[in-house]
Amino acid sequence: MLKDILSISGKSGLYKLITQGKNHVIVESLTDGKRLPVHSYTKISALTDIAVYTMSEEIPLEEVMVKIFTMEGGKPASVKPTGSSNELKDYFEDALPEYDRDKVYISDIKKIVRWYDELVKHQLIDPEQYAKEKEELEKALEEAQSKENA
Questions:
Q1: Degrees (nearest 5) of the Cα angle 102, 54, 48?
Q2: C-alpha 4: how far from its chain's center?
Q3: Cα dihedral 21, 45, 14, 98 in deg (nearest 10)
Q4: Structural domains for the chain
Q5: Which pTM does this prediction carry?
Q6: What is the pLDDT of residues 60-102, one digit of tens each?
Q7: DSSP letters spanning 59-104
Q8: Is 80 exceeded by the pLDDT of residue 150?
């Protein structure tokens, strides 16, 4: 679902991976559609590689986005990323009650809300697709473990 969506250090917004070269990638801004090269020395994070700390484990960002999407009924966030710290904390607690308040900062919550709104705007959050991909991954892991134990 979000495997080709990237966050680039030093640049605001999210980007879609278009193609890869030897020492750069070409990305397209979700905000304005402009394409640009990003060199290999720049820190690039795929949203699928990001997780949120909870009291017991790390939850993939994609799962957090699906929880917010479900809570909001597929609409943009009911809180603005520029809202007060208390508003943002309360909002995030509604979406992910078990989040680790010591490790997840207000700046993280603001970024997640901003990203969520951008993903909803471009219809990139699909809870059904996420559930299907998660189920396929779990099935593949079970099969691999069965073969390993045989």
A1: 115
A2: 11
A3: 160
A4: 5-47 (2.30.30), 51-129 (1.10.10.1650)
A5: 0.86
A6: 999 999 999 999 999 999 999 999 999 999 999 999 999 999 9
A7: EEHHHHHHHHHHHHTTSPPSS-TTS-HHHHHHHHHHH-TTB-TTTS
A8: no
